[in-house]
Amino acid sequence: MEPVIQTDKLTKRFGQFIACNSLSFAVDKGEIFGFLGANGAGKTTAMRMLCGLLGPSSGKATVAGFDVYTQTEKIKKSIGYMSQKFSLYDDLSVAENIRFYGGIYGMSRPAIRTKTTELLEELGLQKEAKTLVRELPLGWKQKLAFSVSIVHDPQIVFLDEPTGGVDPVTRRQFWDLIYSAADNGVTIFVTTHYMDEAEYCNRVSIMVDGVIAALDSPANLKQQYGAATMEDVFYELARNAKRTSE
Amino acid sequence: MKTLVFLLEKEFRQLLRSKQLIGILLIAPLIQLILLPMAADYSVKNISIAVVDNDHSTTSRKLIEKIVSSGYFRLKGYEDSYKAGLKMVEQDKADLALHIPVHFERDLVRENQKQVFVAINAIEGTKANLGGAYLGSIVTDFNQDIRLEWQVDNPAPTVSVASSNWYNPLLNFKLYMVPAILVTLVTGLVAMQSAFNIVQEKESGTIDQINVTPIKKYIFITGKMIPLMVLGIVLFTMGLLVGWLFYGVVPLGSWWVLYGSLVVYLFSMLGLGFMIATYCGTQQQAMSLSFFFINIFNMMSGVFTAVDSMPGWAQAIVTTFPPSHFIKIMRPVVLKGSGFNDILPEILWMLGLGLVLNAWAVLNYRKTS
Amino acid sequence: MRQLLTGAAFSGSSEGQSSDVHRKRAIFQFALFLGIFIRKEFLHVFRDRKTLLMLFGLPIAQIVLFGFALSNEIKDSRIAVVDYSKDAVTQRLITKIGSSPYFNIQRTLASADQIDAAFKKGDLKMAVTFPAGFGDALIHTGKATMQVIADASDPNQATTITNYLNQIVADFNSELAAGSGQPMTILPSMQMMYNPELRGAPNFVPGVMALVLMLVCTMMTSVAIVREKELGTMEILLVSPFKPVYIIIAKLAPNLLISVVNLFVILFLSSVFLGLPVKGSFLLLVFGSVLFIMTCLSIGLLLSINAQTQQAAMTGSLMGMMLPTMLLTGFLFPIENMPIALQVLSNLVPSRWYFIIVKQVMLKGLGIGAIWRELLILGGMCGLLFTISLRKFKIRLQ
What we know:
The structure holds 3 protein chains of 3 kinds.
Chain A (H helix, E strand, L loop, with lengths): L2 E12 L2 E12 L3 E6 L5 H9 L6 E6 L2 E2 L4 H7 E4 L11 H11 L4 H15 L14 H12 L6 E5 L7 H16 L3 E6 L2 H4 L4 E6 L2 E6 L1 H8 L4 H9 L8
Parallel strand pairs in A: 3-8, 3-9, 6-7, 7-8
Antiparallel strand pairs in A: 1-2, 1-4, 4-5, 9-10
Helix pairs in contact in A: 3-4, 3-5, 5-6, 8-9
Chain B lengths: L1 H16 L1 H21 L7 E7 L4 H11 L4 E7 L2 H9 L5 E5 L3 H7 L2 E9 L3 H25 L8 E9 L6 H32 L1 H6 L5 H31 L7 H25 L3 H18 L11 H7 L3 H15 L3 H25 L5
Parallel strand pairs in B: 1-2, 1-3
Antiparallel strand pairs in B: 3-4
Helix pairs in contact in B: 1-9, 2-7, 2-9, 3-6, 7-9, 7-10, 7-11, 7-13, 9-10, 10-13, 10-14, 13-14
Chain C lengths: L1 H8 L9 H29 L1 H21 L7 E7 L4 H11 L4 E6 L5 H8 L4 E5 L3 H8 L1 E9 L3 H23 L7 E9 L7 H31 L1 H7 L4 H30 L8 H25 L3 H19 L11 H7 L3 H14 L4 H30 L1
Parallel strand pairs in C: 1-2, 1-3
Antiparallel strand pairs in C: 3-4
């Protein structure tokens, strides 16, 4: 299995503060990789480095085979991204948002049209095609944001705390979307602080105070720490964490 | 290039949808364009004068009458003592105080000359200058009158001056101000909006989404620039319409020259707005910074006071202000019909400034921080 | 913060305690809250460097720039001369004009046809033409007429330099007449008061003071309040047991302090660098200024209540206040020149009254007798606006 993301001692410093300390890990193609940790542990910083939004201080990393220092534009062509704020345009409709992002990624107009119909069907938003995003309920916004992030069929999609603020049923539905994307070969790199979502991932890494404290499949981790749920695993690891908020 | 098309589509959609914004941006300025030229009248008229006549002679009365009937002055006080006259100036009730001393008529005949005293409130320079000048010329005229009356020979040769005013023979101050006020309004709109627009994307997070895509920086900025330029052109056109409807201002120069310079000007001001946006994280900061520039531009670009009157160092600073160049284009083109060759230096300046500012913005805007 | 509010506010039952102690405790709690809250507001403001730049940098930069740079003085006006006569008389006149500080003879044009093109280029303000046989006409007939053409696209400038030219010619005429002794000459002796050098600063500095203080106060206040609304933290405050009026006062406090600091800096700069010391009572000036500042803060408050978003607050105060304040305060354009409607409107602009106060106290050195009316008006405006805002604020809570 070819790793699509590979890091070697990836570090980010902000002055004296070390946000990410010597991270080394690899993510395989088609994996759903969960990047867990408490607030302030350094998850978002790590993700931004992999997306080409933030330059690392030291260490190495490649995403989709491209170097994060020198080939950020090539990385951007191969990835999708969904941020905590969803980053959809509030004052554009559902269809308009899809069309815009499709166009930005260089999709042809016919391709965009087809994709739009597909997406609307998949999400069940056919009737809301012309609705402005600001009028959608939160759960639908999230699902739309996710679909938009993969509109151009990228190899990898980065999701930064995608399920904040919705009920468990909606979260479950969201993860169904993630699964179907993974089934199509998209690698999913997702950060979250919902420990139950950790169960849905193939492998999980847990960051504490800027360092990766554990990395394995949920089953192995639970066995290793003698815990019944991922929450307990996390608690074991994070108990002594010094940093508690971003 | 195709991405640019999609960008433009999105920007225009957003622009046309923000009804509230369009209202504030287009209607409020227009109302100001209608009302404010009415206020912006710097011509010096209705100068209030306090007269102190200690002579009470025919001559002194005639002088006063001449002054009052000249149309330049409004008699606000007829006092007994110079002290009282000065007090009126002090209290801002009069701009000038004229003191005709006792024995005015007598000494004029006997000693062949007599002084009259004028105190002028010089806080406001133009008024003081012109007030003094008007009074001076009325006195000179009156002098000639009484010489003729007393049939005193005036053997000396005189040079007289025939003066004419070109381009604005009625000395209509509005003609002078309307093009300039239009410039200030377009300036304010464009600089602020461009800064806001980008900062808004920063604040809402959509800019992260853009940064993560392979969009090139200059395409992104061009995509922002074009809709705002259109907005600026629309505002300008509506302003010209208002200027014509309400004040009869019709540009004498060519439309091509006018709109061509407008586009170059908008290019430079948008560059300023974008440059500001790259330094700001919140809307409040964007507002503060753009307001900082706009205010200085408004006051120092020659809208209300002439750039020529400024000291050398100030004039040098002002050359870096794009509005100062656009005003040097607007007034001549609108009022005198100046052509492309006449204003070429100004266009080059704006182009240069625009290139610098936009390049600054593009370089500063880092997709990767 | 919430704990602090509820804990500090409700301190147990009042049974069995004398009303005196109760009152003292209430005052203490109020002072505590105000202190905490004001501190928070200060932190907001002082942590935002760019806004800070505007709050302090703007007034200072403007006063310095405008005080030194702005002026209505017209000197060294570039003019052209067209001399069809080229005799001793025209030479003399031309030299006389050229040596005046008001004029700068840029060019000699060959013919009057070139005047239009030269004007269009924009660098010449006036053209002086001497017809052929000028000197001869003067000597033989005692009269000669020269032509002066002014570029009147700037009417004031045209009028002023035409007048300067007239004065120079009149002077020339008296030189000619010197031999023959002009009888019955009236000599006006003009004294320029308060500003003998006709500098721009005395007019512009008070005006810019009024403008900048007004804009900074209204804008900053309205935006600060709306921002809190947008963020949702306002609701937490409103839920607290403190009266709305205290919340408002605390919100206004930092801006008040900043404006007062600005005021001092401006006055310092004016007296040291611009040669404009405060001639009258400093305390009186500060009192008037504080009154003005509070009026502006109240306006900002009123604006913030109606605005939904920060952008609306900013655009509203900027677009709605900037140009009207600039034009209706009276320092750029005399109010008495304006149509009656606008004159009436200018009465509503607080900066107009403040401008008068500054001129009278700072420049002319007058006392309260000269400005009591303006002070009353400002006081009235302030009280009225504050009351209206408070009422509207309370309504919003319901």
